[in-house]
Amino acid sequence: MTVTTRWACPRDPSRKDRGPGPMTSCRLCGGRGCPLVVYACNNKAEEFCFVVERNENGSSKFMCKDCGDTFLGTQSRIIAHKLQIPGRGVAVCMVPPSNEARAILEPIDVVGHKDVSQRKRASGEGKGKITKEKQKMQKETDMAVARFFYECDIPFQRAEEAAFKRMMRAVGDYGAGYCPPDRERIADNRPKADTGGESAKGKLPDKPPGLLWACMETLRREKEACLGSAMRTGVTLVSDGARNAKAGVVAYAAATPKGSVFVSVTDAAASGQAAAPTPEFLAADAEAAVRKVGEQNVFMVVMDGPFPCAQALQILQGSLPRVMTMRSAAWGWDAVLQDIGKRFRTEVLAPVHAILLHVTNHPVIYGVLEGLKGGRHLLEPAEARLSVDVVPVRAFLSDKTVIKHLWSHPAVSLWLDERGAGRQAVRDRHTALGLEHVHNGDWWRLVEAFVTLVNTAVPLVGEHDLDAPNLYKLPLMYDQACAALQQPLSHNGQEVDTT
After folding, report:
1. What three-state secondary structure class fits 29?
2. Full DSSP string of 110-177
3. Any idea where the DUF659 domain is (predicted)?
4. Domain ranges of the chain
5. How far is C-alpha 18 from the chain's CA centre?
6. Which of 43, 320, 392, 460 is the most buried (most CB within 10 A)?
7. Whole-prediction pTM value?
8. pLDDT for res 268
9. CATH homologous superfamily for 233-336?
10. CA-based nearest residue to 49, from 78, 77, 72, 23
């Protein structure tokens, strides 16, 4: 049997790239590559794994080329792992099987089970007998689980907890003959003895740590691993949704250490979920968002709301067990749509508000605005107006009578005449509007673009606020703003030239 040497580094099992390979961030080799001894394959199934050990009893140790998991067994366990078949003594692969894997492994699996069935029939084990026994065992097991919840006064919703499912899966994988720990073993919080790396000759070996201590230590390590992953590349996916009449959307944003990034928006009505999205729909939508970002990069998924979000998170925990989930009512549209909604306000409206703030700082303009209805919003700092006062400012600016009153006010006219610069260049342009004293053409161009854009946007989203439910229209509005303002705007962290 030939032995080959490949270069590989430990990878996160949820990575999408196939199998181990050189990693620049590897702490063991510094990116040079870690040695991995691989045995030659004996059959077609082994080609989808690395054979890292060969045992005399016929079983081998395999490393999946897709997810990096290691397990002992034969080709039947490779097939169960790759085709994601549960209940065969091996954890299923987190990466969906490719068409090539299905085409090769499924016929082998069918033939293998056919041989087993023939052996059972030859030994007198009839199909009907097995089915009846399984049905009886299923009923007895269900009854035992239900009695456990009822007699111990455990809330029934705990049956949906990931910890309960993990426990039942582990017991099932062990098989018949499992003896659960008693109360003393479960409550044993004795820490692991520290021998300082030395063992006294002639003495009995130290006792293993207590079960409770080992459990808490495992949870601590898992938490540290998750937090460490979040600190390096972790992303929290934040989800929120809303309905307006018969239209509804579900949006996702990724909160990263470098800021928030818009991920996706799903039109629930177009997906046939206009009335009330089902947990299955929300779970599938969340899984699609996770795949879009990259499962290896996602640390947590946060959903807002009770039903059906709680059920969707439970489904998601089963399909993506390495991703933490949390339900919280603290997240809303502002958190979910920062990359579009907030960027739209800050980058499209900020130039207008900044110029308005500069103009209104003058005592003459300040005094005039104090006497105008709606003008007080323009006197507040720009930072305080951006998120909440879009509509009042829009209404003020879109009222041509108010603007004419402002710029035709004697005090303002006198002040503008004293400034002089730039007034003649734009007077002819705005004569039709009756605005003869506009002091800055560029300022008025921005105001016109702002008024036109927001007047179009408000009916478009169907509400009197930019945080309305139909915010999947905001990308279009953002593109319109780039064109209307005729200046480069930051888009997903990159400069986009719209000229």
Report:
1. coil
2. HHHHHHHHHHHHHTT--HHHHHHHHHHHHHHHHHHHHHHHHHTT--GGGGGSHHHHHHHHHHHHH-TT
3. 211-342
4. 3-122, 128-180, 233-336, 343-496
5. 22
6. 320
7. 0.31
8. 72
9. eRF1 domain 2 (3.30.420.60)
10. 78
